[in-house]
Amino acid sequence: MSTRKLPSIRTRLAGALLLWTVAWGVCVAVAVSLAAQHEVDELLDDSLQSTATVMAHALGATTRPAGAEPERLAAADGGQFAWQLVGSDGSVPLRSANAPQAPWHPHMTPGLSQAGPWRVFGAATGRDGRMLYVAHALAERVETRREVSTAAALAALSIGLLGFWWLGARVGLELQPLERLTETLTQHDPLDSGQAALGPAERAELVPVHQAIDGLGQRLARRIAHERAFSAHAAHALRTPLAGMDAQLAVALRECPPALQPRLRQVREASGRLQRVVTALLDLFRVGGEVQRASVDLRALIAHLPVEGLEVSVQADVPLSADADLLAAALANLLDNAKRHGARKVQVSVTPGPGLRLQDDGPGLPHERLQVLRQALARQDYDGPTGLGLMLADLVARAHGGALTLPEVARGFAVELALAPTPPEPL
Q1: Does residue 67 lie in a domain region?
Q2: Total structural domains within the chain
Q3: Which of 92, 181, 189, 301 gives the lowest tally of CB atoms within 10 Å of its CB?
Q4: Single pTM value for the model
Q5: Per the domain annotation, does 65 fall within a domain?
Q6: Which backbone phi and psi does 406 adopt, to 5 degrees?
Q7: Do 234 and 306 share a domain, yes or no?
Q8: Which residues make Cβ contacts (< 8 Å) with residue 7, sequence separation at least 6?
Q9: Does residue 375 share a domain with residue 306?
Q10: Could you give the strand order of the β-sheet that contains 404-405, starting from the edge strand earlier in sequence?
């Protein structure tokens, strides 16, 4: 796990929590709003029914002489409530000020109903067939439902936001052990005997993670120890016979007949190339690939890397800070590549950054082929078309904190090794 990933994990979790909270809050708010509207309707209907029942009992004994004008009582309810007392003949002897003169229903209609802009409840007042209607304005009911549902929705959203804040704080608290574990891993070295184990886990859930990391570190330490031992033995077991072969070939080249000299010269060139490859591989994997920077004189370094048949010119005014052995291994293979691909001259120069640039006078490569090589180097796809020379050079550049690039040139083939002064990358 990388420290650069933790903020994105927390951000994604916070975003997911926010979306979940908003969705949950909206759903709950809608559900509460609908439930509140239903409850308000029921409460208002119950209020109408209760009012009608009380008034029906109060007006049950009320009589009015035949032919008298209907009475109109002043209403103190602001016009939102109204009532009518309707006789069996359809007349309206009593009504509130805001009630219509005509009956709300032409026929006696008990119970809840709707008449125009009113919600009406009818109740019989006695045995003479009179009916009392109590009504509530529909506009007032709509406004009441809206106010109650809005308040309920806001309350639900407030609770949802409070839950989001609490969940976010909880998630941050739960991620703290992972952040501290990440900080520990950035400085953990399984090859150091004093840091072989991560130590106790902060949470029980992290115990398997600690155990897996410790086990992986132990396996890597054993493997690296084996590779270091192999490199140490191989350095002696391979270099000595190859040096002996080269010496014997040099003697044979002087003593053999002229007709055999071209073949022996080819054999000696192949032996020299094999020595350079072996040296490069051993240097790359020595001591786990650790970079040992020092001031390197580029002219003196290349003078020790003669490639027969190749003229190398160096333009370097300042020394480089690099690992001399690794840099020599990379240059030896790049120079060998240039010769094998038809180059006769190679120019080596120092680039800003700092870095190295090698450009030869060979036939070069088509643009499409260069693009394939660039993509393979960017992906570190060394099993593909890069070949051993470019692979070794790229590994050396990455070990120095840089990378290998292939710039466009008008003629020949060019490579650039960036040797940035940054922490090296493990090989």
Answers
A1: no
A2: 2
A3: 189
A4: 0.46
A5: no
A6: -120, 90
A7: no
A8: none
A9: yes
A10: 311-315, 345-351, 355-360, 414-418, 404-405
